[in-house]
Structure formats: structure tokens, C-alpha cells
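Fig. S4 source data, part A: sequence.
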Amino acid sequence: DYTQANSLTFFTEVATHYIKNYGIDGWRLDQSYQVPVDAWNTIRTAVENAAAARAAAGETWGTLGYMVGEDWDSQANIATNTYGTASNPGLKSAFDFPLHYGLVQAIGAESNGTTGDAASLFASWNDGNVYPAFAMPNLFLGNHDIPRFGDLLQRAGLGDLGDDAYWLRHKAAFSFMAAT
């Protein structure tokens, strides 16, 4: 209950404790949409300040203060519920699930084996311009929550480990993410 000051104080102290005492560089924050943007603003600011203090002291670790939210939703909802606005920013990074699905649809296949459509990369539901300017979407090809890209390619008959097509599709996906 983030309307209670003790909740926000507690989580802010926990977050900065791990940076100050253990030198961690950041967190993956599952279901980030469940925390109000105002609370993320407070926690993230404290994390960034603790990391900056370690960097100023010449520390090698615990200097990034990186926080990436997992908000498995539309880009508009990620913008609203995780990023916030320029005047009230929440987290500065979140997994871009819509772009992931667009990329998989364009270069590979859906989890049901249906081959993709290159137009999915820039469909109306997949427009990164809805994100605030400070947002740093985390582009990814796969994670532990979804089938791996190579598995999707194999299911759809688009390539296997020994096939050039399998590796070319991986290269195309990584090249797209790097260019983006």
C-alpha cells in the first residue's frame, strides 16, 4: 500500500541498502505496473543517487542504478503505468514486449508456429513514439517467460541449428535491435 509512507520508506531503504552494501547494479522489476509511478520516481531517484555516490567514490560496482520494469502490456499502458511523464517520471527502462512480438512476427514465427509478417514491426499497436523522451526501452529477443527465438524458428520450420537460415534470422533480429 504505497499510500502509506512506511511502505515507500521501506522499499526505498531496501533498494539503496543493496547498492550501498553489496554494490549491485540494478534490478529486473516484475509486474512493475503494480507500483504507482510516483513511488517508482522516489525509489528510482534514491537508487540513482546511491549509485552516483558509489561512482563518485571510485567504486567499480553498484554504480549503474539500473532498474528495468516488466510491464507485459501495450506500449501506451507501459508509457502510462511504468514510465510516467517528463514531469513525473517513474522507471526509465522497461521491457518492450510489443516490439519483441513485432520482431518475432516479422523475422520468425508466433509460438503456435504461424509464420510472421514484416508489417508487424511498425503496426499501430507497436509505435515507440508513445514513450516519453527519457524512456530507454529494453529490447530483447527472448526471456524466461516466453519461448526462445530459436525454438520458435524450429517449430515453424524456418531453420535449425545446422541451417544458415536459423543463424541469419538471429543475426537479422539482433541487427534490428542494435539499429533501433
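Fig. S4 source data, part B ends here. The first strand starts at residue 26 and ends at 30.
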